[in-house]
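Progress report, Aim 2. The chain analyzed during this reporting quarter is listed below.
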Amino acid sequence: MTPTAVFLVLISAAAHAYWNYLLKRAGGTRAFIALSKAAEAVVFLPAALALAWRAPAGTLAGVGPFIALGTFFVLAGYVTLGAAYRVGDLSFIYPIARGGALLFLPPLGWLAFGERVGPLGWIAIVCIVAGVLVMQLPALRREAWRELATQLRGPATLLALLMALILGTSTIWDKYAVRSVSLWAYFYGYTACAGAGYLAWVVRAEGVPAVRAEWRAHRGAAITVGVLNTLSYGLALAALRTGGSTYVVGLRQFSIAVGVWLGARLLGEHVSAPRRLGVSLLLCGCLLMAWGR
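Predicted structure tokens for the chain:
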């Protein structure tokens, strides 16, 4: 990655961590997530229309199939995460789903684009994945490792790894898409479609009164999360144009460290010894990703 791409990914990771903090503070309900996705589409609609109006002839041609598959990956991720959270805790599922994508991206990136991960990149992957696993430990004891090994053999891990595979595959598709069609048209198109589909599903599942009550209670937070989510992944897509997919996703794991800091600083969450060690390993991995780009 170029220094500019590294900067974009770090800003993207910080924005990602902050909107996840806002999501947790607001309760993290399905209705809140759906409203934040709808807010993304509404807030950025004027900009999307203006860009479409000014776009040179042929710029938007052929973007439809890219949007369709991008939407499929987003909705598949929602369904998989929902299934995972029914059998496992968020604190266990989320880091494995994000960090686990690094297990799939090197072969996927090589098959799709001929990308190769250098020695520092492989060391970085080991550090990040190890950091994610260490963060799951209740304590730095042998018994804790045995408990973690038992937990990793459960169905929650399988679903988290399936989500990681979806994330890895969608990253490869995103990289191909932004190299082939307008970044903004692709990103806004699949975001709006996925948001509309998810909102419709949540309204059907929970009812209009519940969604309306969530909007009244957390309107500002939902809009802010929607804006930050768009900013976060838009910057990541820009970095994917020139950066290797494994390196971009690896460096984005910086968001986990930022999230731990926000939780401790703003939510008063306890940062245990395993979590401190895990974050240290993760930050070492991110540094190696940036250095070995």
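The radius of gyration is 19 Å. Residues 3-52+62-291 form one domain. These observations will guide the mutagenesis work planned for the next reporting period.
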